[in-house]
Amino acid sequence: MTQCSNSAGAASDPLVRICAYVLGGIWIFQGLVPKLLGPHADEIAMIRAVGVPLAYAPVIAHVSGLLEIGLGLCIILLREKPLIYGLSSATILGLSLLVVASSASFLFGAFNAVTINAAMLALAAIAGIRLNEIGRAN
CA 72 to CA 20: how far, in whole Å? Predict the structure, then answer.
């Protein structure tokens, strides 16, 4: 994706704003609620599934929560930068592969990662496509 030549226009574009706020908000929520405010038992179980000892699992959950909140804030604040959506998508895909490889049973729960990850990937793609359109129009 190319860099937008008119960042003010990209940042104020309603479609880009909606995608950035929702995508960033999801990252912030996912970092805050199940990781920092918990950590939730499922988060600990997924971390343990990759071989992390129980004593370190809450620390890993808290650090990953802070990183997810940071990514969410970056998406909102840097919403006119196509690279941030690529970073979000790469992170989602990487974490999804980790879940598939280590704790696939979490993919079949009532509130599973597949549906939210697909929605997050779609939001990132929509924002990236829109930023490309804005960049070509300028």
Answer: 9
The CA distance from 92 to 70, in Å, is: 14
Cβ-based neighbours of 135, under 8 Å, separated by 6 or more: 2, 3, 4, 5, 6, 10
Domain chopping of the chain, boundaries = 7-137
Do the beta carbons of residue 42 and residue 107 sit within 8 Å? no
Tell me the pLDDT tens digit for each residue of 121-135.
999 999 999 999 999
Strand ranges inside 7-131, DSSP E: none
- For residue 3, give the DSSP letter: P
Q: Which residues contact 115 (CB under 8 A, 6 or more apart)?
A: none
pLDDT in tens, 83-99: 999 999 999 999 999 99
Mean pLDDT of 64-81: 98
Give the separation between CA 115 and CA 82, rounded to whole angstroms.
23
Could you tell me the CA-to-CA distances from 127 to 18, 37, 132, 136 in Å, in that order? 9, 30, 9, 14
